[in-house]
Amino acid sequence: MGKIRSAILLLLLLGAAGWCLGPGGGQSVAEETHRVRIAYLPITHALPLFAEKELLTADDDVQIELIKYGSWPELMDALNTGKVDGASVLIELAVKAREQGIDVRAAALGHKDGNVIIGGNDIEKPEDLRGKIFAIPHKQSTHNLLLQQMLAEQGIKPNEVTVVELSPPEMPAGLAQGQIAGYCVAEPFGAKAIALGKGHILARAEELWPDGLCCALVFNGEFADKHHELTRQATAKYLAAGQYLTEHEEEQPQIARLYLKAKAKVVEMSLQLIRYDDLRITPEAYAELVKRMTAAKLIERVPDYEDFVDKSLLP
Prior knowledge:
The protein is an alpha/beta fold. It has helices at about 1-15, 30, 45-55, 70-80, 90-100, 140-155, 170-175, 190-195, 205-210, 220-225, 230-245, 250-255, 265-270, 285-295, 305-310; strands at about 20, 25-30, 35-40, 65-70, 85-90, 105-110, 110-115, 115-120, 135, 160-165, 180-185, 200-205, 215-220, 275. Strand 9 (about 135), helix 6 and strand 10 (about 160-165) form a beta-alpha-beta unit. Helix 3 crosses helix 11 (about 230-245), helix 7 packs parallel to helix 8 and helix 8 (about 190-195) packs across helix 13 (about 265-270). It is globular, with a radius of gyration of 22 Å. The termini are far apart.
């Protein structure tokens, strides 16, 4: 009886300490929730996420597991269904998900600037896109909004350009082979066409939409509520990584090449087009984003800033 009582007492003590027993032996709840799984596409827009991963040490209270996806729909499905805890994603996709009642919470931006509209060598000016095929990565994207603004400013009607969706890696090859006349997408794929001598810049994001939003770090709402402190720590480390990249520009190419399949020249060229300073999402920037999305008929019901941006996650 004494041995049985001792065993029961031990189990109670373990339970009070937050331990649970499973097939792998014993593992604490703290250990189980020490890790945050974040989805990404291999683009320079996700560089703060890559830097966060590289800057973390074994002694940090939060650890990041990066999970690569090949397309935005696949990534969003994983985020919305809880297969991953967070993601670096096109902000328009996250806003759309929130409009549809999916609990997605934005924490920070992915970058600033970093988008260019690329035209083939036979496209000297935007007007030359009339009757041509132009590629974007997704309808719900800043790339689509930038294209529509450029066309409108040049007096080009939407039906005068055929817009198609392609995955980012397909675009430089499509341009080189004459399948498309231009594209707008995340870096480093714009820089790749320039480096190959197959395209040039027709317009830059900062010219069309100063301080425009594009990608964001977002979290699955259920995970953020259940593991709030862990999510907050992950966000703090992410913002610190963005500041680190700003203060150590010489290290940006080295970190980027760990995650991007691109030549050094392409990576370095793409990083000249993008910034990572002050990645907080301001109410003013969000208001401009949803205004543009509404005008482009990408959303009908605008999620409130407070419902979309979870300020409790910010340090």
